[in-house]
Every structure is written in structure tokens, then in C-alpha cells.
């Protein structure tokens, strides 16, 4: 018998996310609204052009896409997630919102995706990630892939957990321990890595902390 035979193999990221959200998806939006700060600011900043296209990486329950589609009725919205369990919830939410003709969903991996392959498009006017990079192994590749999917003049918006350096240590330690239960790891080096990716692509970047470092917000592009 080989040394690996009979051993428990590590789950893929997709399997891990499905395991977490198979039940969590039913209460996800209700619980997360209290600590996923900055999401609504991101949506308000999107401002896609008339007839523009907007993509969300890791769309989850489609909460953000639905709010954005209502705010910008002249744009089309696209989203993908690696978790089929979350996509089930997202499709149902979009159906209930009556937005099936403007929000399009599929399954995909944020670290290696093609706008053409997933949605038949050359690129997007806006791309955004809302509290997803902290859950993605290889999140650096997700930023690069998203930046590479921007149409000329497009922008990428990112909001996620920050460093919490300006907050009490006990608070940051407790938050990190709790987030780890859900495979969430705040990315302390998101700013410099996003800046490097943006500069390599010839794009501008604005990165700043929010709420005393609880969250961080970045905009890449024109």
C-alpha cells in the first residue's frame, strides 16, 4: 500500500467553501451586514458608464450585485463564485429581485478566469471584490486576473479587512481568531501587492485604510 493510500486528502478551496456555506448561506447577509464595513461605499463609487458592464469576483449571495443593479439601472452585471452552494442562493435572490435579465451568474475561480470564457465579453468597465480576497488562496493572482479583465478606462474596486493596527490589540486578536473559523485571513500586504500589480499593468491605484484600519479600500485603474 502506498504511503498516501487511505489517507484523508485535503479538500479543494471550492469544497471548503461549499462546506462552510451550505448552511451559512441562509443567514449570511443577515449576519455579515454588521461587520463587512465599506461594501455600500464601494457600490456608490462604482458609477459605471451608461450601458456599461460590471463584474463581481466571489459574488456570494449576490447581495452586492442586486444593490448595484438597482442603483445603476442602465448597466449589466456579472458575477461568479467558486462555491456552488452560494451560487444557488445567489440565483434565487436574483430571481426574487426580478433581475434575471440584468444579472448573470456562473461558477468560476477568481485566481484564473477569462471574461471571454465565462461571459463571452472582452472586458468589463468595472470589476469589484468585496471581502473575498481574504478568503482566496492565491489572492494575488485574483487581483492580477481582475486587473487584466478591465476594459480600456475601466476600474477595479476592492474592499476587505484591513490591518487593524489602530484598533485595540484585544479586538484585532479576537477578530482574527473568529475569522479563521471561516477560512478568512486579512491581507496585511494587500496595499503594496495591489500597487505592484497596478504599476506593472500601467494603471493608477489609490489605497487607503477605513474605520481606523478595520477595513481597507483600493481603486485600480483610470
UniProtKB/TrEMBL annotation:
Q: Name one GO biological process term.
A: methylation
The record's GO molecular-function terms, alphabetically, read: methyltransferase activity
Q: Enumerate the spans annotated as Methyltransferase domain.
A: 51-170
Q: Which SUPFAM superfamilies match?
A: S-adenosyl-L-methionine-dependent methyltransferases (SSF53335)
Q: Which Pfam families match?
A: Methyltransf_31
This protein's source sits in the domain of life called Bacteria
Q: Which UniProt keywords apply?
A: Methyltransferase, Transferase
Which InterPro entries does this chain map to? Methyltranfer_dom, SAM-dependent_MTases_sf
PANTHER family assigned: 2-METHOXY-6-POLYPRENYL-1,4-BENZOQUINOL METHYLASE, MITOCHONDRIAL, METHYLTRANSFERASE
According to UniProt, the name of this protein is Class I SAM-dependent methyltransferase
- Tell me what organism the protein belongs to: Sphingomonas ursincola
Amino acid at each position: 500500500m502506498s504511503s498516501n493510500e487511505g489517507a484523508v486528502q485535503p479538500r479543494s478551496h471550492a469544497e471548503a467553501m461549499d462546506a462552510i456555506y451550505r448552511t451559512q448561506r441562509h443567514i449570511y447577509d443577515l449576519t455579515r451586514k454588521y461587520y463587512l464595513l465599506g461594501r455600500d461605499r464601494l457600490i456608490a463609487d462604482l458609477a459605471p458608464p451608461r450601458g456599461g458592464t460590471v463584474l463581481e469576483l466571489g459574488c456570494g449571495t449576490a447581495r452586492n450585485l442586486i444593490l448595484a443593479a438597482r442603483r445603476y439601472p442602465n448597466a449589466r452585471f456579472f458575477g461568479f463564485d467558486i462555491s456552488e452552494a452560494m451560487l444557488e442562493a445567489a440565483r434565487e435572490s436574483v430571481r426574487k429581485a426580478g433581475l434575471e435579465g440584468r444579472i448573470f451568474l456562473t461558477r468560476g475561480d477568481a485566481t484564473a478566469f477569462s471574461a471571454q470564457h465565462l461571459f463571452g465579453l472582452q472586458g468589463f468597465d468595472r470589476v469589484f471584490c468585496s471581502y473575498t480576497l481574504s478568503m482566496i488562496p492565491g489572492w494575488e493572482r485574483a487581483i492580477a486576473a481582475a486587473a487584466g479583465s478591465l476594459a480600456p478606462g475601466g476600474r477595479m474596486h476592492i474592499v476587505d479587512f484591513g490591518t487593524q493596527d489602530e484598533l485595540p490589540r484585544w479586538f484585532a486578536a479576537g477578530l482574527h481568531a473568529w475569522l479563521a473559523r471561516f477560512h478568512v485571513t486579512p491581507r496585511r500586504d494587500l496595499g503594496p501587492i495591489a500597487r505592484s500589480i497596478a504599476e506593472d499593468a500601467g494603471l493608477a491605484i489609490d489605497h487607503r485604510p477605513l474605520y481606523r484600519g478595520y477595513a481597507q479600500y483600493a481603486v485600480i485603474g483610470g
